[in-house]
Amino acid sequence: MKQINYLLLSICIASFGLFTPIASAENTIQLSKEQLDNLGITLGKLEPVKQIPLLNAPAKVVIPTTQEYIVSASQVGLVSKLIAAKGDQVKKGNLLAQLNSPDLLSMQRAYLKAVNELQLGSLAYQRDKKLVGEGVIADRRWQETQSQYNFFVAQVNEQKQLLSIAGMTNSEIDRLTATHQLSGLLNVYAPISGVVIERMIAAGERVQMQAPLYRIANLNELWLEINVPPERASNLNLGDQVKVEDAPVSAEIILIGQSINPENQTLLVRAIISGNQSYIRAGQTISTQIIQKIDRAFKVPNSAVAQNDGEAFIFIHIQDGFKISPIKIIGKQDEDAIISGDLNGDEELAIKGSVALKAKWIGLGGAE
Question: Using one digit for the tens of pLDDT, what is the confidence trace for 189-219?
C-alpha cells in the first residue's frame, strides 16, 4: 500500500512539473538561437520618455477675467457716433464712441462756477495774508479767510473729479478751464489695448448711466477651461502640461477645481496657454490631452507586454534566453505602453513573440 501511495505522489509531482514555468531560479527562460528563430521573436530597445499622457478631455478657450473690460456709459446720453466695430484692434486711449449728454453740460457749469469762486477767494486770501502780516487785520478774520479759501479749493477738486468720473480726460478739463466753452459731447475711450469682442449699442440709441457699450479684451493671454471626470482628477498636478489637438499649442495647469459642475458632473481644470495663440480663438471648444512629466519611464509596443495573474511583464534578452522582468504600466499612447520598473534603459527586449515566450514561461509550450 505504501508503494502505491509513493507511486501516486511521484505521478502528481511529475504532472505538476509539466505546468511549472520553464524558468530557472533567477526567473529566466532558456532558449537557443534556433528556438529564438523558430518562435519568430523580434528584439528591440526601450525608448525613454519624459512625459506620459494622462487623459483626453474637451476644453473651452476663455479670456482671463483680468484681461477683459466692459466699457460703459458714464452719463445719460444719445449715441451720436460709433468709431470702433467688433473685431477692431484698439490701443489704450483710442476713441471708441461719442455721446451727447445734457447732464455733462450741467456738470461743466458747476465746475466753472467753482473755479470762478476759487479765483475770487484766492484774491481775498492773498490780500488778507498781506494785511495780517502787517498787523492791520485781526487773526480771527485771517482764519475765516483761510477757511473760505480751503472750501473753494475743495469744491473745485470735487467738481473736477466728477467731470473725470463723467468721462472727461485731464486735457479736456484743462481746455474747459482755459476757454470756458461748454460742450455736451462726451468721448468714450478704450481703457486698455486689445480687441473689441462685442459692440452693445447702435448709433442714435439713448443710453442710461452705466449702460454697457463695448466689451474689450487683451488676447495676449488665454485660458483653457477643461472638463475632467472627478475620478481622474486625483492623478493631476499643478504644472502638468496640456496639449491641444491638431494645433501647436501647449498650456500649463494653474488650477484644479474643488467643486463639481452639477450639469455635467465634471471638475474644472484651468490651464494658461503659452506660445503662439493664432491657432485658437476665445470661445472655441477644442480637444485636449493632459500630459504629466515623469522620471525613468520607457515606451514599448503593446505586443512586448505580457499579462499574468493581473501583473505585467516584459522579456529581456540575455545571453542564453530571456529574463522575465515585472513592470508597471503607467500609461497608454496609441499602439504603445508607457512602463516603469527595475530597468536601466539599455536592455534589449522581445517586442514581438511575447505570446510564445509567455506560453513557454507558464509551461504551455514544447521544447522547441
Answer: 999 999 999 999 999 999 999 999 999 999 8
Sheet with 194-199: strands ordered across: 68-72, 212-217, 194-199, 89-90
Spatial separation of the C-alpha atoms in residues 37 and 240, rounded to whole Å: 44
* pLDDT at residue 110, as a whole number: 95
What's the total number of domains in the chain? 3
- List 52's β-bridge partners, or say none: 292
CB distance 18 to 257 below 8 Å: no
Q: What is the number of H-type helices and E-type strands within the chain? A: 7, 21
The full 3-state SS of 178-204, as one line of letters, equals: HHCCCCCEEEEECCCCEEEEEECCCCC
For residue range 21-59, what is the model confidence (pLDDT) as tens digits?
Answer: 444 435 888 887 788 778 888 889 998 888 887 888 999
- Given a contact cutoff of 8 angstroms between Cβ atoms, the answer to whether 135 and 197 are in contact is no
Instruction: Report yes or no on whether pTM surpasses 0.85.
Output: no
Q: Name the residue range of residue 167's domain.
A: 67-217
Q: What is the mean pLDDT of residues 339-344?
A: 88
User: For residue 367, what are the β-bridge partners?
Assistant: none
Residues 340, 297 contacting (CB under 8 angstroms): yes
Which residue in this structure is represented by grid cell 505522489?
A: 9
Asked if 285 and 264 count as a contact pair (C-beta separation under 8 A), the reply is no
341 forms beta bridges with: 327
C-alpha span between 126 and 129 (Å, rounded): 5
**Do 98 and 229 share a structural domain?**
no
Domain holding 306: CATH number?
A: 2.40.420.20
Consecutive H or E run containing 95: strand 95-100
Domain stop point among 238, 262, 294: 294
Provide the sign of the torsion angle of the four alpha carbons 142, 144, 150, 156, taken in this order: negative
Residues 217, 282 contacting (CB under 8 angstroms) = yes
d(C-alpha 271, C-alpha 197), whole Å: 22
As beta bridge partners, residue 271 has 224, 253
Give the domain CATH number at 279.
2.40.30.170
Q: Which position has the grid cell 534556433?
A: 34
> Please, is 302 exposed, middle or buried when counting C-beta atoms within 10 Å of its C-beta (0-12, 13-18, 19+)?
middle
